[in-house]
Design goal:
The complex is a heterodimer of chains A (439) and B (288). Chain A is α/β, with parallel strands linked by helices. Chain A is 38% helix and 18% strand. Chain A has twelve helices and 15 strands. Chain A has an eight-stranded mixed sheet with strand order 2-1-3-4-5-13-12-11, with helices on both faces. In chain A, strands 7-6-8-9-10-14-15 form a seven-stranded mixed sheet. A two-stranded antiparallel sheet of chain B has the order 1-2. The longest helix of chain B has 33 residues. The termini of chain B are far apart. Classes of the chains: A alpha/beta (439), B mainly alpha (288). Chain B: One of its GO terms (molecular function) is transmembrane transporter activity.
Chain lengths: 439, 288
Amino acid sequence: MSARRITRREAMKAAGALVGAGVLTGISGTLPTLAPTAAAQASTPSGKTLRIGFQVHRTGIGAVYGAWYEKTANAAVQYINETGGIAGRPVELVAEDDGTDPKRGVEVVEKLAQQAKVDFIFGTLFSNVVIAAAPPRAGELKIPYLVVSEGYHVPSGKMNRYVFQPGITDVHAQVTALVPWIVKNLGKKITMVFPDYAFGYDHRDFGGTTIANVGGKVAALVPIPPTETSFTKYFPQIPRDTDVVYHVMVGPGVLTFVLQMGEYFGARKPKLFGFIDSLEGVDMASPGLDFLEGSHIWEALPRYADGYPTRYETFYRARVGVNASGASQQDPKNVSTYSHMFGVWETLFVIKDVVEQSGYEKPGPEDYRAFIETLERFEWFNEGNRHPQGAKKFVGRLHQAFGQQFISQVQSRRLKVVDRTRIEDGMYKPEGDYTKQPL
Amino acid sequence: MSFTGHLFLGLLEGGVSGLVIALTAMGLSLVFGVMRIVNVAHGEFFMLGAVFAWYFSSLTGSFYPALVAAPISVALVALLADRFILRPIRYAPEPTIVATIGLLYILQQLVLTFYGPYARPVAAPIYFRVDFPWFGYSGYKLVVAALAALLLAALWLVVTRTRLGLYMRATQQDREIAQAFGVPTERVYAAAFALGAVLAAIAGVLIVPVQQAHYLMGLDALLLSFMAVIIGGVGSLTGTLVAALFIGLIDGVMSVFFTPTLAKIVASLLVAFVLVLKPMGLFGEDRL
C-alpha cells in the first residue's frame, strides 16, 4: 500500500518537474538532436531545480502579510524562471505555513531543511517567529536563513552566521532616519504606542534613544499586546501635553486602534506619526480612518503609484499584480502590504546574485560557505527591476541591508509622499560582527 | 485625567464589554444547561456572526439587513451541526467536546479559505461621538450595550414566559421525565443549540463595527464566555449574567488603572478561586 502511494507521488513529482522545467527541456533531454538554440538556452532554465524553502505566515495574526508575501514570492520566481532561472537552473518555491507561531516556526525550519532538503530558507516576517527559529535551528542545521522581518535582531549580532536580512531595512535604521524628522516637524514630547513584543521593543529602544539624542522627550511608553482587540482603555496612559503620538501596531486590531483613538481624542488630538504597519492591508477609505487625515505615516515603499514613479517600481508593481492604489488588480478591496513585501522580491534576487557569483551548486558545508562569504562581501545592491524600492547599502558584518525611507501624509484619504530620507540618515553604529563567527 | 475620569472610563468600557460577553456567554450557558454538553465551537458562532455581517452588509450596502440575516444564517449552521454532528453521537459529553473542537477548526478554516485572513471593517449604522468632560467615547458602543441589555431581557422572557422556555427548563431538570410528559426533547435540543448560536452571532454582528471581522476572533469570545459560565455556575443564566458583568467591569477598571495584562491575570485567578471554593460556581446547582 505504502509502496504504491510513493510511486504515485513520485509520478506526480516527475510530471510537475516536467511542466516546471518546460517541455523543451524534456525533449532535449531525450532527443539530443533537438537541442535548443543559444537564445532559448538563455531564457529557458534547465538542469537540477534549485529549491528555495519559504516559511510563510499563511495563518495566524500574520496571515495578511503572509498572503501578500506569497503572492510576491510567486511573482518573483515566475520572473526569475522566465529570464533564465538562477545560474541557468529552474527555481521552485517550497512553501510551508508556520501559523505565525514561534513553536511551529521551528518545526517548519526543520521540516524544510531535513525532509524537503531545500537549498535555502527565506521569507519569515514576524520577529518573535524569527527569533525562535533562527538562532537555534538555522544555526544548528547550518542552512542559510534569509528573513524579511524588519526587526533589529539580525544586525544586533544576536542571530548567527547563517541568518541574513538583505531585502529590507531594519527598524533601528528606520527610526534613526525618521525620528529627527518627527522632532523637527511635529513636536518634541512624544508618546510611543507599540506592540508588546520584540518588534515593538525595537521601536521603543531605538526610537526612544534617538528621540533623546535629537532633543526630544519621550512623554510615555504604551505597550499593547499584539492580540488586543480593544484599545480605549490604554489611552489614559497618553499624557495630555503630548505633542506627538508615535504609533506602530500590527495584527487584526489595527483599524480599531485608529478608530478608537479618534473617538477618544476627538478634535483635541495630538499630532500623529504612524508606521504603515498600523495600516498595512487596510483600505485608506475604511470607515473611521478620517481621524488620520493630515497625519504622517512612514512608508518603506509608497502604496500609491505616484509616490515613487520609477520605471522599476512600475515594473515590479505590475508583476506582483498591484494597482495604482496599492490593492490587488483583481480585487480593489484587497489591499496589499506594500511597504514590506518588496523585501521578498528583493531577497529572492539577492539569492540569485549570490548563487551565481559564489558558484553554489548543492546543500553542503562547502557550497554554503561560498554562498555566505560571497553575500558578506556584497556592499551595494543597485536600484533596478531586481531592487525596485531603491538602492541598498549592504553591511556584510551585520548581514543587513539599508535603504531609503518615505514619509507620507494622509491627504483626502490617500497617502501622499511628502519627504524621503537618504540611506546614510539611517546608518547607526554597528554592534555585531557575524564574519568573525566560525562556519 | 482625574481619578474620576479614569474610573468612569473603566466602568464604561467594562460595562459595555460585560454586556457583550453576557450575550455570548448566555448562549454557552443555555446550551450547557439544557443539553449538558460543552460546545467548544461556541466562539466560532460569534465569529461567523461577524463574518456574515460583513458579507451581508457589503452585499446590500447597509448594516440593518445583516443584523437579521447573519444570525439566521448562523442558526442554520448550528441546526446542521446539531443534526449531523451532535445527534449522531447522541450528545454524549466527551465525544461532543472532541466533535465541537473539530467543528471549531472546520469553521475557522472554511472562513480562512473563503473569506481570507483579513480583518474587514463594517461601517457602524449610527455614528456619533459622546464628549465626556475627560474624553470622547463611541456612541455606537453605548447603543450596543443598550441593545445587548434589551436582548438579555428578551431572553429572560423567552425562558420564563414561553412554552419553549418551559420545555427547555423541563428538559434541563430531567430529560427523561420531560420526555414522558410529552416534551419533544430532540427538538428542544436543536432549538437550544440554535438559540445559543444565535445569541453568540448577534454579539458578533453588534461588535463588528467596533472590532472588524477576522477568522480568529472567536477564541477570545470563547474564553471569556467560559469564564463567565464557570464563575456564574454552570447552567445558571442569572449566574452567567452576573459573572459576565463582573468580568467586564474588573477588566475595564483594572485595565485603566493598571494594565490589561494584570486584568486578565486577575480574572483567571478569580476563576481558579471560584473552582476551589465553590466548584459549582456562584449560582450553580449543588448537584451535577
